[in-house]
Amino acid sequence: MSEAVRVPSPATPLVVAAAAPEERKGKESEREKLPPIVSAGAGATAGLDRGAKGQISTFSSFISAVSPKKEAAENRSSPAHLVFPNIKNVREQPPICLDVRQKQRTSMDASSSEMKAPVLPEPILPIQPKTVKDFQEDVEKVKSSGDWKAVHDFYLTTFDSFPELNAAFKKDATASFNTIEDSGINAKFVNAVYDTLLNTPQDVQKTNPQFNNTSTYVIYAHLLRQIATLVEADHHFLVHWFKKLSQKRFKQLVERLLQFISLRLFPAKPEEFPPITKCSWWIPSAAKVLALLNTANNLVHPPLIPYTDFYNSTLDHIDLMEEYHTWQNFGNSHSRFSFCQYPFVISVAAKKIIIQRDSEQQMINIARQSLVDKVSRRQRPDMNILFLNMKVRRTHLVSDSLDELTRKRADLKKKLKVTFVGEAGLDMGGLTKEWFLLLIRQIFHPDYGMFTYHKDSHCHWFSSFKCDNYSEFRLVGILMGLAVYNSITLDIRFPPCCYKKLLSPPIIPSDQNIPVGICNVTVDDLCQIMPELAHGLSELLSHEGNVEEDFYSTFQVFQEEFGIIKSYNLKPGGDKISVTNQNRKEYVQLYTDFLLNKSIYKQFAAFYYGFHSVCASNALMLLRPEEVEILVCGSPDLDMHALQRSTQYDGYAKTDLTIKYFWDVVLGFPLDLQKKLLHFTTGSDRVPVGGMADLNFKISKNETSTNCLPVAHTCFNQLCLPPYKSKKDLKQKLIIGISNSEGFGLE
What we know:
The chain is an alpha/beta fold. Among the domains are: 132-343, no CATH class; 445-623, Hect, E3 ligase catalytic domain (2-Layer Sandwich), CATH 3.30.2160; 640-740, 2-Layer Sandwich (Hect, E3 ligase catalytic fold), CATH 3.30.2410.10. Helices cover 43% and strands 7% of the residues. It has helices spanning 2-5, 59-66, 100-110, 132-145, 149-158, 162-169, 187-197, 202-206, 217-228, 232-242, 247-265, 282-299, 320-330, 348-376, 397-407, 430-443, 471-485, 496-502, 523-527, 531-542, 547-551, 584-596, 601-615, 625-633, 640-646, 657-668, 671-682, 727-739, and strands at residues 15-16, 82-83, 387-392, 415-420, 451-454, 459-462, 556-561, 564-569, 648-650, 698-701, 711-713, 718-721. It starts with a helix and ends in an 8-residue tail after the last helix.
């Protein structure tokens, strides 16, 4: 009900095709004979269904036309198109298809006189004197008397036709809308009528479908298609009106659409729906309407709902790679639908699967090519050519890693294997994890000078110091790419702005002259890195006095580099241009852009190219910046209860006393010790995309003396725990073990 009112122009003519089925010999369900949407080349209407008032086709007629339960439909012999004629004094919106009314008139003129529809008189606009207060008083009377007839009659009359809808819910039934700020609808009245309907008897609800159960999905699908095929101008209005909904109602719309898609994909009772071949447009229509809601959500700061609320977990169970390959082959073409055209409905876990499989396929292709090259040169194949083999010394970790990655640039898309010189550890995953952790820790150390740590925001940002060689920034980008490529989570503290820049653009441009890593930045982005400076700029923007006299600033900034203060003009002649009340917005924008884009361009460009040299894939176009961060770093939110539920045991049972002691101790640890435990056993203190269950954490019984410390095999995410006799002893040994855990010997 309320969804119908939120269509951009409920007062304007809608063209709806309502075709009755032709007689058939077999007993074919009417659901298979649902009408297509009117196209630009649609023929003339054979006649007009009349509403109760004889003036205009009714909304109930529209519902009856598409209802799969209409019994009389089987006896009709020819299809009929339902047309809602124009309404006087109401602003006309663009039709669903261009020039559809003109083409209908042409077609009618060309048809025989018998086929021409009679000319109807101008409809009389109804008057609706009832107010929100009147309606609520009627509802209270009904609740006390138990007789719902008055309320039922209100619903029947109000939803009988589009003019009645406008009379009831438009602030001025004769006024046209022309602003994105005001839809002209009395939202308070709409919400009151909608909320009341949810608590009415079934016979009242039956005439006003809520679209929350499958029996009304045929009607719902047609409504969604009408919205999805509106012209772009109407979509523009809709988006801006959607963003003004309350959070509760906005979320209800999203959840109902997601449920619609899920039940169409995996129906509990398939017989309730038409065959998928007959309604292939259902899901694309719903996805398009979801896209409008997603756009509206992104226009609001903060968003009405988290972006994760658009995820449809049902899609985790479909053939994601088929969707991905369809999208790669057909793009955003309307000829073939793919959920990848609407990536906001795909969860980050599902996107990770797509990226992993795409990466695996690239790895296989690179490895196969290496084998073919060896064989073609009549050389004996060596299995090492299938991997990116890194041999590094702990004492020269950064330089050795940089040299190895530079020499083996062609092998970056092979499976990574790490060997520490002088150590006999076999890399089953643990050594690779440790290499990442140690390298990241060293590169991001303040003494190294590549990144600046901001204590207020607890994150790193690129140093703006100029240097002759930016290869180490490229190394960091390669590390991040390798981490995503090899499903390793890194303990990196970059602000969200970094990942936005990393996807600008998501694919390396073919023209090397096109700048990369440049994105639109705001004071909000700066606040995530330098909150004090961002606060100062915000005060400048909101200052009510004379900015020029009070702040005495120019379009010039100063930065310290190796003890020397250097000045930079934000625009030509900036040192001579004062910041005033009139140009302060420009000053703040240029200052923010300088700090986050221009001053670190070479550093970030090297970082960008390093990352994309490994992760060059169309799959990156599916990701939001926040999702890239989760893929790279994992989630910092630990749920040790979830880890407890998913833990496997070898030699122990979860009811054993030692295991009970262990979880009592771990669940009582502060966050820093819980992170150390996770780092000790898995090589990372972050949670992977799939949650704790994806760690495959295992506790094994170590049949050694209880005087020994616990041992971890990070390559298997395995903790070997001696059978300690007391909780105190277990806690003491565990803390010692997890606090002194760097280095590998034989495992």
